[in-house]
């Protein structure tokens, strides 16, 4: 409990948490069941190359999403790169600028230019009206990102892709187990990709998947993930090693078994944050779509510095000293990271909403590693800091003056 500003760890007080509280500590399924599955993998001696755990994992993901094909691969970024290549994308592809840099890298790695599009200030997803303005004769596709698990404006993007004859893919790295208008995310566009990285709601330690009803795309991805082999001695095209191994798939199967529990915890935590931050000046908790299935995995704040009295970065500094490793996704924006900042040096002028969000968004810990007690204490630090914003800033200013005097 902080009673004075001097109790804050940033001013010499004791950290609220003795160990680090991460945004993305892995959710772990039943340990005994997981070890049994891994033991069976070792007993079979079949560690990779499309083994039974991988095939079972693919079937279960496809059934949950409601698609004909799921192709499991080594990571979400690999899945996106394979989907891009399988869909025949080239030239320019329109992507949101407010996303994880891997979305852009999956294009640029293959010699395709990502064209950064601004986002909707409310949903944080790619803005269809802006997409339409960016279409050129070199545009071959659009990639929407279902940020925080909230669906893009799928119908508007579909209409634009059809009107201009370009492909439509979705990066659904945040959205496994989430829905849109009665259908599960994963069923839209030419294909969608999931990440099953350790920090995701359901994980395979490292892994990803392409999901689609397009048989040609699915078959192309299956070939690409295994060097293009169609038989022991026959290669039908260029590929790399992008396979998911059996041990990772075994972890994924246990994670799928526990998915309902993970979602229940996430939803409880989200509700706890909502209750404990209700009415906090300058703090907006980004809502989830509760009209259908949702994984509730991301707890995202927008911080209005003028109303809160502290900026996002100031609040993050305070939380980090308390061992709460809040994250400022996706700072500073893809367009400000290399190589894109060199390729498009003036991009920020055309991406005002992205620039705004990159200065305001803060993600907080969630998942099975966080409980009601931890969340209440995190929220208490946030509220205490906002209530004492003027005093905190005054102490920082005094410290800077003192540092300058010593330096002189």
CATH architecture of the largest domain: 3-Layer(aba) Sandwich
Number of domains: 2
CATH topology of the largest domain: Aspartate Aminotransferase, domain 2
Gyration radius, to the nearest Å? Answer: 23 Å
Order of helices and strands: EHHEHEHEHEHEEEEEHHHEEHHEHHEHH
SS field, number of helical segments: 15
Mean pLDDT value: 96
What is the topology, as strand order, of the major beta sheet?
A: 2-10-9-6-5-3-4
Q: How widely separated are the two ends? A: 38 Å
Measured by DSSP, the beta-strand proportion falls in 5-15%
Low-confidence stretches: none
Largest sheet: 7 strands, mixed
The named CATH superfamily of the largest domain: Type I PLP-dependent aspartate aminotransferase-like (Major domain)
Secondary-structure-derived class? alpha/beta
Question: What is shown here, in short?
Answer:
This protein has helices at residues 31-44, 52-65, 76-86, 101-108, 128-134, 154-164, 215-224, 246-257, 259-276, 305-308, 312-321, 340-343, 352-358, 372-387, 389-407; strands at 21-22, 69-73, 92-96, 113-117, 139-145, 167-171, 179-180, 183-184, 191-195, 208-212, 283-285, 299-303, 324-325, 361-364. It has 408 residues and is an alpha/beta fold. Strands 2-10-9-6-5-3-4 form a seven-stranded mixed beta sheet, sandwiched between helices. The protein has a three-stranded antiparallel beta sheet with strand order 11-12-14. The chain has a two-stranded parallel sheet with strand order 1-13.
């Amino acid at each position: 409990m902080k009673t004075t500003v001097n109790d804050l760890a940033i001013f010499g007080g004791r950290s609220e948490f003795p160990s680090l509280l991460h945004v993305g500590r892995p959710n772990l399924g039943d340990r005994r069941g997981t070890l049994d599955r891994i033991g069976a993998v070792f007993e079979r001696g079949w560690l990779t190359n499309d083994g039974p755990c991988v095939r079972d994992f693919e079937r279960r993901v496809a059934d949950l999403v409601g698609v004909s094909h799921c192709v499991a691969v080594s990571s979400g970024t690999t899945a996106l790169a394979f989907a891009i290549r399988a869909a025949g994308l080239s030239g320019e592809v329109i992507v949101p600028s407010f996303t994880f840099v891997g979305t852009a890298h999956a294009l640029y790695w293959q010699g395709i230019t990502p064209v950064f599009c601004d986002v909707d200030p409310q949903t944080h997803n790619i803005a269809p009206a802006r997409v339409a303005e960016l279409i050129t004769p070199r545009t071959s596709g659009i990639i929407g990102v279902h940020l925080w698990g909230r669906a893009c404006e799928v119908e508007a993007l579909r209409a634009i892709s059809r009107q201009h004859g370009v492909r439509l893919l979705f990066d659904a790295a945040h959205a496994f187990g989430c829905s849109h208008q009665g259908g599960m995310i994963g069923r839209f566009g030419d294909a969608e990709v999931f990440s099953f990285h350790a920090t995701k709601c359901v994980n395979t330690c490292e892994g990803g998947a392409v999901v689609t009803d397009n048989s040609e795309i699915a078959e192309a991805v299956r070939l690409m993930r295994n060097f293009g082999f169609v038989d022991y001695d026959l290669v039908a095209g260029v590929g790399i090693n992008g396979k998911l191994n059996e041990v990772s798939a075994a972890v994924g199967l246990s994670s799928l078994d526990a998915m309902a529990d993970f979602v229940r915890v996430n939803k409880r935590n989200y509700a706890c944050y909502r209750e404990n931050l209700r009415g906090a000046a300058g703090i907006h908790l980004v809502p989830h779509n509760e009209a259908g299935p949702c994984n509730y995995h991301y707890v995202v704040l927008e911080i209005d510095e003028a109303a809160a009295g502290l900026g996002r970065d100031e609040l993050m500094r305070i939380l980090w000293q308390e061992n709460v490793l809040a994250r400022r996704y996706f700072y500073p924006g893809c367009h400000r990271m290399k190589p894109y900042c060199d390729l498009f040096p003036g991009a920020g002028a055309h991406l005002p909403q992205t620039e705004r969000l990159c200065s305001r968004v803060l993600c907080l810990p969630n998942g099975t590693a966080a409980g009601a007690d931890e969340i209440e204490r995190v929220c208490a630090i946030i509220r205490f800091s906002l209530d004492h914003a003027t005093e905190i800033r005054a102490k920082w200013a005094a410290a800077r003056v003192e540092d300058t005097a010593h330096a002189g």
